[in-house]
Amino acid sequence: MRAKAKAVRRVLRPGLAPIAQLRARLGVTQEQYARLLDVAWATVSRWERGRARPDPKAAAKLNRLRELADLIGDAIRPEDLPKFLLTPHPELRGHPPADLLENDFGFEAVKSLVLAAQSGTYR
Predict the structure, then answer these.
(1) Over the stretch 51-105, which tens digit does the pLDDT of each residue have?
(2) Reduced to 3 DSSP states, what percent helix, strand and coil does the chain have, rounded to the nearest 5?
(3) Res 31: pLDDT
(4) Do 13 and 37 form a contact (C-beta atoms < 8 A)?
(5) Number of domain units in the chain
(6) CA-to-CA distance for 5 and 53, rounded, in angstroms?
(7) Which of 70, 118, 109 is nearest to 90 (CA)?
(8) Distance in angstroms (rounded) separating the CA atoms of residues 101 and 97
(9) Structural domain range at position 102
(10) N-terminal to C-terminal alpha carbon distance within the chain
(11) Is the confidence at residue 8, as pLDDT, over 60?
(12) pTM surpassing 0.70?
C-alpha cells in the first residue's frame, strides 16, 4: 500500500497550474489547502482556475509548503500529511506546522523537526 501511495504522490498532472499540482501532490481538498494557506477555499479555486494570483504573502507560503513537501518526501503517507500539517505539535511550542509557514524562523523550526524525525534524533 505504501509503495502505491508513494507512486501516486509523485505524479504531477500535465496541464495543471503549479498551485493545483502542489495540491494534488499533497492529496488535499481545496478546503484543506485553503486551511493550510490561511485563505478562503474560493481563493484557492480562483488561483487554480487562473482567475487570480496569490498575493506575495500567500506565494511565499506556497513556496515554503512546496519545499516542505519535498523535504518530507515519502516519510509521511499522503493521507496523513494534512493531519501532520494541521495538528499542534509540542516541539513547535504547540503550533501546527502549517501555521509556521508564515515566516522563515517558523519554517526553519518545522524543517528541523522533519529532519530530526527522518534522522532518528527526534526525542
Answers:
(1) 999 999 999 999 999 999 999 988 888 888 889 999 999 999 999 999 999 999 9
(2) 70, 0, 30
(3) 95
(4) no
(5) 1
(6) 30
(7) 109
(8) 7
(9) 2-119
(10) 28
(11) no
(12) yes
